[in-house]
Design goal:
By secondary structure, this protein is of the alpha/beta class. It contains eleven helices and 16 strands. The radius of gyration is 20 Å and the shape is globular.
Length: 339
Amino acid sequence: MQAIQVAQYAKGPEDLKVSTLPAPVPRPNEYLIAVHASAANFFDLLQITGRYQHQPSFPWIAGAEYAGVVLSTPSVLPDGRKPKFQVGDRVCGASQGGFATRVCNEEERLMPIPKAWNFSDAAGLFVTGPTSYCGLVNRAGLREGDYVLVHAAAGGVGLAAVQVAKALGATVIATAGSEHKMSIARSFGADYAVDYRQDNWPNEVKRLTPGGRGVDIVYDPVGLVSQSLKCTAWSGRIVIIGFTGGGIEKVATNRILLKNVSIIGLHFGTYATAAPATMKQVWKGLNELIESGKFKGTCFTDQEFIGLERVPAALKVLGARESWGKVVVKVNQERGSKI
């Protein structure tokens, strides 16, 4: 198979190369999948340079999120269950090794591709969609009528959060760093868009809320908690999704106390083992939004990336913040493959 193998930490995406490797052999409880599209994530950049919290032992295959077709099914599943998916089924999922033509994965880390979705849109669903739904609904307790501030709203998790919040009856204020990205956020449902390159953006956000009271929920994948406290309503909730801004904040806790604000963390990947029932409930809610047409794919379309050799270019665009939505690489199938 073809894959992006990492044998030592890279200085940047430009160091990544395509290698020819033996095809993976699935364990008895795993599926083998032909990958048709792989999504790039910010944590991929951290992982290839040795800065992520989960670092596999060398050598390992980069990438995590993908969509493809089932080539083989498990021979043994717990409790004698029959495989949920059959050979030829279209699935999306996440596991170490997404930048490859073949990948193995367990059933719990796979979902069927929505009927009307293509591989490129589906490749970017498994991480960002449920993360945003869980962050807003399960962690922040989103209610109809809430005012929700979504940072980096034109990014992958940002556009997912915009759609979830809007579908569930919230007024959405999006922040982004360019006119183009603000326009993208509005096109996916944001009611307002604010440029967070401007020093007074918290005041602008407050101005957009009833009586200038501030927002009920802040969805933060960037690391803007301190500034967001300036425009959070009394008894508001701030959900920390990530730190794409590059730094880890130190927040004055007296401000949290005085405004009665809850600061909530979310590491959705741990739900598969720590709270599998919650993960099922999250996917049920998200799939209802997808089936009703209220949640759609967010594949970046300003540029096209075809072939694993384009993974470095895709990661560079993502790292330089020149993209919106999910940056996806279309994976060419190997010669002779009929899948």
